[in-house]
Amino acid sequence: MFVASLGDNFYNDGVTDREDDRFQRIFEDVFQSRAPLDAVPWYVTLGNHDYRKNPDAQLLRYGYDSGGAWKMPAYWYSVRVDFDGGAAGSNYAFFVFFDSWRFTADEKQLNWLRKTLLSNEAQNATWLVAVSHVPAYSIGNHGKNQTVIDNILPILEKAKVDAYLSGHDH
């Protein structure tokens, strides 16, 4: 079990630096002090509100292997989650977390996304899931996002992604 945070982690204006007390007040005191959430990793992506101050602070606060719940090793990264049952190593979900706010049309991220989603590990997954902040389509206030539709959606479709989890409209 894990939690996928879909961005806007520190609403309304993000955090200032890695020592910002909002990490303690909003994340650690609330989620890391309550079972069962205190025992599961939180895989995180950034949203537009996280960019209002210092988005790098969310990467710097906790190292990926720090033992803490917060997991955000980079602006884009992948996670494999193995399931019980099935042949050893054959029943798993492969998640790709990427930045759909600042890096949506960034060639470096798009190339990484293509390569990662088309990798053997991703293509052999039982479930292939993309996770980010901005949806391609929404009936909420923000509506559709043409940049995501033009740049991200074709990659997800080519890789036959099973689900795209997103936030943004709240």
TrEMBL record:
Query: What are the alphabetically sorted keywords of the record?
Result: Hydrolase, Signal
Superkingdom of origin: Eukaryota
Q: Where is the Calcineurin-like phosphoesterase domain?
A: 5-170
Q: Which Pfam families match?
A: Metallophos
Question: What InterPro entries has UniProt attached to this entry?
Answer: Calcineurin-like_PHP, Metallo-depent_PP-like, Metallophosphoesterase_PAP
Check the UniProt entry and state the signal peptide residues, or none. none
Q: Which GO terms describe its molecular function?
A: hydrolase activity
Keyword Signal attributed: yes
Q: What is this protein called?
A: Calcineurin-like phosphoesterase domain-containing protein
Identify the species of origin: Perkinsus olseni
